[in-house]
């Protein structure tokens, strides 16, 4: 007698089942001119989303638009350092595009600098671009004209906020601020019909990590990679996690931080 059981009824495989589908959804991606933001925009368009992509560089924004699958996408140039203008800018964009189903805020800046070398204007610059802009985007996104009920806001924090990163304290603090903000906003915006979560990537192969790499010898950079049991991450590794947090797959998740780190923090 065999221990193997088999179904009494055979159902055909549901090949159309795709809970990650973003068909019919409109998603804004910031930082879409490079690295993680660009890869995310392309990835989300392949899942069926209509993309509103933003960045500062017009040529690279056009290149992203040209790489998207599907139709109806738009690009909007905007400098998020101009935090006073974020809310009126979002209102203008959403008046044109209609309310959004999701916002993936990928734009960010990183500059390694030990605390003894830090000047107040550097702190101001990093905190404004990485943290204040994130908070003003939440204020804008929660407006009725800017999102539909059940919308999802996804931030990109960093493993640097969760594990010591010597010489990187200002950046780490800015990304730690995002983690605290997600905890608060994840509950505060429930009444607006918005879920809020973040991904926290470790080292991902992008122009930003290239800058960091340029500061180190090849040997020392290899040591950094070796801290990641699964090796250096790719932009699509983060894009997949962002897609999960935007799609119905994460309907019951808010206020969470999803580490995407190749085992770095394990
Ligand atoms: N790469 C990593 O290892 C890593 C690890 C953890 C977290 N992260 C985070 O992931 C995010 C994306 O990083 P990345 O590696 O993809 O970097 P990246 O390739 O350097 O891209 C940065 C993006 O941010 C945009 N940006 C920067 N400042 C801006 C501003 N003031 N206004 C509007 N857009 C602005 C840039 O736009 P323009 O080029 O058009 O100016 C660009 O699209 C950042 O938040 C970063 O902190 C990266």
TrEMBL record:
Organism of derivation: Asticcacaulis excentricus (strain ATCC 15261 / DSM 4724 / KCTC 12464 / NCIMB 9791 / VKM B-1370 / CB 48)
MF annotations from Gene Ontology: D-xylose 1-dehydrogenase (NAD+) activity
Record InterPro entries: KR_dom, NAD(P)-bd_dom_sf, SDR_DHRS6-like, SDR_fam
Sequence similarity: Belongs to the short-chain dehydrogenases/reductases (SDR) family.
Pfam families named among the record's database cross-references: adh_short_C2
Group of enzyme by EC: oxidoreductase
Entry protein name: D-xylose 1-dehydrogenase
UniProt keyword Thylakoid, yes or no: no
Record's keyword terms, sorted: Oxidoreductase
EC number assigned by the record: 1.1.1.175
PANTHER family: DIHYDROANTICAPSIN 7-DEHYDROGENASE
SMART domains linked to this entry: PKS_KR (SM00822)
């Amino acid at each position: 007698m065999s221990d193997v059981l088999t179904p009494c009824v055979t159902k055909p495989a549901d090949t159309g089942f795709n809970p990650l589908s973003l068909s019919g959804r409109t998603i804004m991606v910031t930082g879409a001119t490079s690295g993680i933001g660009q890869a995310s925009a392309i990835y989300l368009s392949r899942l069926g989303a209509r993309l509103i992509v933003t960045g500062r560089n017009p040529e690279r924004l056009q290149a992203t638009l040209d790489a998207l699958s599907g139709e109806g996408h738009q690009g909007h140039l905007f400098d998020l350092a101009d935090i006073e203008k974020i809310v009126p800018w979002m209102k203008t964009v959403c008046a044109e595009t209609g309310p959004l189903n999701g916002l993936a805020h990928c734009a960010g800046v990183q500059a390694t600098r030990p605390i003894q070398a830090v000047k107040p204007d550097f702190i101001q610059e990093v905190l404004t671009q990485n943290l204040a802009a994130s908070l003003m985007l939440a204020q804008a996104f929660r407006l009725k004209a800017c999102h539909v009920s059940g919308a999802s806001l996804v931030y990109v924090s960093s493993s640097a906020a969760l594990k010591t990163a010597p010489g990187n304290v200002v950046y780490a603090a800015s990304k730690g601020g995002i983690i605290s903000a997600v905890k608060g906003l994840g509950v505060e915006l429930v009444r607006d019909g918005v879920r809020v979560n973040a991904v926290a990537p470790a080292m991902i192969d992008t122009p930003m990590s290239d800058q960091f790499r340029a500061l180190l010898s090849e040997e020392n950079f290899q040591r950094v990679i070796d801290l990641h049991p699964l090796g250096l991450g790719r932009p699509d590794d983060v894009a997949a996690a962002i897609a999960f947090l935007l799609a119905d797959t994460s309907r019951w998740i808010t206020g969470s931080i999803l580490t995407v780190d190749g085992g770095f923090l394990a």
